[in-house]
Amino acid sequence: MGRRAARRAVTTRAHRRARLRVRLDRARRALAERPAAGGHPGDPRRHRNLLSAIRRRDQGRLRRHRHRCQAGRLTSLQESTVASTPPPPPGPPPPPSGYPPPSGYPPAGYPAVTVASADPAPGLQYAGFWIRFGSYLIDVIPIGIVGGLLNLRTGTGFSCRIDLNGASVCGGGSSYIGSWLGVLILGVYWVLTWSLLGASLGQKALGMRVVNVQNGERIDIVKALIRYVGFVISAIPFALGLIWAGFDPRKQGWHDKIAGTYVVRPQ
Predict the structure, then answer these.
(1) Could you report the per-residue pLDDT of 99-118, keeping only the tens digit for each?
(2) Which residues on neighbouring strands pair with residue 212, listed in sequence order?
(3) Among 25, 20, 14, residue whose Cα is nearest residue 66
(4) E strand or H helix that includes residue 202
(5) Carries keyword Cell membrane (predicted)?
(6) How many alpha carbons fall within 13 Å on the CB side of residue 228?
(7) 119 phi/psi in degrees, rounded to 5
(8) 265 with 125: CB under 8 angstroms?
C-alpha cells in the first residue's frame, strides 16, 4: 500500500512538471506574438519579467505540491512500517488451577505472638533484698506474736524428764499446733493481700507491689497461692531461695520464679 502511494505521488509530480513546461511555452509564444502599445513589437525585457513571474508562481505551486507529496509519502511509510511490525509475543500462560493466583500481599499465616516485656513499667524498679526483708518483718512479727499467745493460752510446750528407772520421757506433741496455726494464718494473709490488694501490708508500708511478669498487673489468687507454696519451699533449705533475691538481676526469689512474679517499687 505504501509503494502504490509513492508511485502515485511520483506520477503526479511528473505530470505537473510537464504541464508547467507546456504553460511556460505557451506564455513565451503569447508574449512574443503580443504587440506592444503603439503597434510595435513587445519589449523583450518586459517579456522576460512576465516569464519570470509566471515561472516563480508555478515553481511555488510545484514546491508546495512536492511538500504535500513528501508528507503523504512519510505517512504512508509510517503506516507500512506499523503494518509490517510483527505483534509482540504472547505473555506467559496462567498458572495451573491447582495453585492460587499470585498476589501482592504475603500469604496469611499465624498471627504474630506478642511477648510481654519482663521489665518494670516506667517509674518503677525492682525491689531489692533488704527492703523486702523489712516488709517481711512487718508482716511476720504481729503474726508471730499471735502464735506465741496461742501457745501460752493452750499451755503447750515441749519438755523431757527422767523417770525413776532412769529412762528419759519426752512429751508435748501439741506444742506444734500454735506454730502450724501461725503458718496457716500467714499463708491466708499473704494470699489474700497479694491477690486483692497487690501487696501485703508490710509491702504497702514500704511502697512495694507484687506484679505479674507477663503483663505487669496484679496477680490473681491462683498465682498468689503458688507464690506462697514457693515461699515455703524456698525457706526450707536455710532460706536459700529467699536470699537468692539479693543476687538475681531481677531481684526474684525462688518463689517469684515459680509463680512468675516480681516485686517493684517507685524509683
Answers:
(1) 555 555 555 555 544 444 56
(2) 261
(3) 14
(4) helix 201-205
(5) yes
(6) 21
(7) -80, 150
(8) yes
Cβ 32 vs Cβ 42: under 8 Å = yes
What is residue 196's predicted lDDT score, i.e. its pLDDT?
94
Parse the chain into domains and list their residue ranges: 2-83, 124-266
Q: What per-residue confidence (pLDDT) applies to 160? A: 44
Contact indicator for 230, 259 with CB cutoff of 8 Å: yes
pLDDT of residue 86: 66
By C-alpha distance, which of 258, 244, 250 is closest to 119? 250
What pLDDT score does 115 carry? 44
- Report residue 109 as a C-alpha cell: 499465616
Given CA atoms 147, 182, 129, 221 in this order, what sign does their dihedral have? negative
What are the residues facing 261 on neighbouring strands? 212
H or E, element range at 221: helix 221-235
Give the orientation angle of helix 221-235 with respect to helix 176-192, to 10 degrees.
140
Phi, psi of 37 (to 5 degrees): -65, 135
Question: SS3 helix, strand, coil % of the chain, rounded to 5?
Answer: 60, 10, 30
Among 57, 55, 50, which Cα is nearest to 34's? Answer: 50
Cell numbers at 65, concatenated: 505540491
Distances (CA, A) of 104 to 101, 110, 115: 10, 18, 28
Task: Check if the beta carbon of residue 153 is closer than 8 Å to that of residue 181.
Answer: no
Please give the grid coordinates belonging to residue 82. 506499523
Look at residue 201 in the predicted model and tell me its pLDDT.
92
For the chain, residues with pLDDT lower than 70 are 1-11, 13, 31-48, 50, 65, 69, 72-87, 94-118, 147, 150-179
Q: What pLDDT score was predicted for residue 154?
A: 58
